[in-house]
Design brief:
Number of strands: 0
Structural class: mainly alpha
Shape: globular
Mean pLDDT: 83
Helix content: 55-70%
């Protein structure tokens, strides 16, 4: 703790908030290009509503499961599963880079605690427990919510992501300070120059994530509670740091944008190899001494999955920056809505899925009802929260007087040039 405080104090003396730095915004063109990342953030988090709505209708475990299944939906979900979370971690890491352009590290640490820790605690007490209650009901429990609440064992459910981002943000402060220093900026610039001279080196950045898939995933199944969650923790951290590094240097972002078609092709080719390997039975799991089968699984599933993920994530970043150049009122409004939507959406989804369990209308109609109901319910909650000053901090929104909502479209548009990316 004392070391962390020393880093903050040293950074505040050495790097004023407005000092010139490659980590600060450049010209107007740089700000304009960031609109693509803002929209990508909205789409990525919006995809969670569809993904979590579909989780009830596939074969792998989730909070509340329906007996109806769809194999076609499962294949789509399996593809999304390979890159949706890495994309969100990447965007969150990029958001830290953009946030540090306007804040000292001490200000950043305080902002992370306020915007992440407070909503996490509130959600654990109020928003998340109903999900566990519905789990109990599906397992035959017959008790009221008041009887259930004191008996529950707390679990973060979907809020695990907020806890992990908080840990990454605070634990990464020494690294952020190092990269804001002169040697750190020069090292990052040298890395980018090397990648510009020989772009295939870009794929070496994916080697650590492949190692996570080979050595950690088979031994450390996902727990979502930080404890013994090494594969998930390290995989998320690597994409968080990748997003931070790439967003910290405009030439790095430009390189990814120029290579976007190549990255997409790599991702799609690896996706084909990945699904072909799965179809032949190679899963990459530790097969009780069958070493040859294990390494066949590594070569057929784990390695292609790693490059599938990197290719799709960076291609999406590149295409977003290349083709989305404008913001507008909806961008600021949508970016402000993302965090409250994230906090409440899964509880609404679980409630709707549970209510539809006895209804036999097919998977796709149920999926449509669950997704649309989740979106509508989340939007209603957001519209309420954004108008009630005491609720805003509990849902990760900045406090402001009620009168400030009068011109929300104009104000949102002003906030939409890059700052929105920093909201987690």
């Amino acid at each position: 703790m004392q070391a962390g405080t020393a880093v903050l104090e040293q950074e505040e003396r050495a790097v004023p908030l407005q000092s010139p730095s490659p980590l600060l915004p450049g010209d107007g063109q740089q700000k304009q290009r960031e609109h693509g990342l803002d929209w990508l953030r909205v789409v990525a988090f919006g995809l969670l509503i569809l993904y979590h709505s579909g989780m009830a209708y596939v074969s792998w475990p989730w909070t509340v499961k329906d007996t109806q299944r769809s194999q076609a939906l499962e294949m789509v979900m399996l593809f999304l599963n390979r890159w949706r979370l890495p994309l969100i971690f990447f965007i969150s890491g990029a958001g830290v880079s953009f946030s540090l352009r306007r804040r000292s590290l001490r200000q950043f640490a305080g902002e992370r605690l306020h915007r992440l820790a407070l909503p996490f605690v509130f959600a654990m007490l109020v928003i998340v427990p109903p999900q566990t209650y519905f789990v109990w009901l599906t397992r035959g429990a017959r008790l009221s919510y008041a009887e259930f609440y004191p008996r529950q064992v707390p679990h973060p459910h979907h809020m695990w992501f907020v806890a992990y981002i908080l840990v990454f943000s605070l634990a990464g402060i020494p690294l952020f300070a190092a990269l804001r220093s002169g040697p750190g900026r020069r090292a990052l610039a040298a890395l980018v120059r090397g990648l510009e001279r020989w772009p295939p080196l870009l794929y070496l950045l994916n080697v650590p994530t492949v190692c996570v898939g080979v050595f950690l995933e088979p031994r450390w199944p996902t727990t979502l509670i930080l404890v013994n969650d090494w594969a998930n923790l390290c995989g998320g951290l690597l994409y968080f740091l990748l997003g931070f590094l790439i967003a910290s240097e405009q030439r790095f972002l430009d390189l990814v944008t120029r290579r976007r078609v190549e990255l997409l092709l790599v991702g799609l080719i690896c996706a084909a190899a990945h699904f072909a390997a799965i179809a032949t039975g190679f899963t990459g799991a530790w097969p009780d001494g069958a070493r040859a089968l294990f390494w066949a699984g590594v070569g057929g599933v784990v390695v292609p999955t790693g490059f599938l993920t990197m290719g799709i994530v960076l291609a999406l970043v590149g295409f977003a920056r290349a083709h989305v150049r404008r913001g507008g009122p909806w961008l600021g409004y949508a970016n402000e809505a993302v965090y409250p939507f994230y906090i409440v959406h899964q509880t609404i989804t679980v409630a709707v899925v549970y209510a539809m369990l006895p209804v036999a209308i097919g998977v796709w109609p149920k999926l449509a009802v669950a997704a649309s109901s989740t979106f509508a319910g989340s939007w209603l909650v957001f519209e309420l929260v954004r108008r009630v000053r005491v609720l805003r901090p509990l849902f990760g929104l900045k406090a402001r007087p009620p009168s400030a909502s009068a011109n929300r479209w104009t104000r949102s548009a002003r906030r939409s040039d890059g700052a929105c990316v920093s909201r987690n």
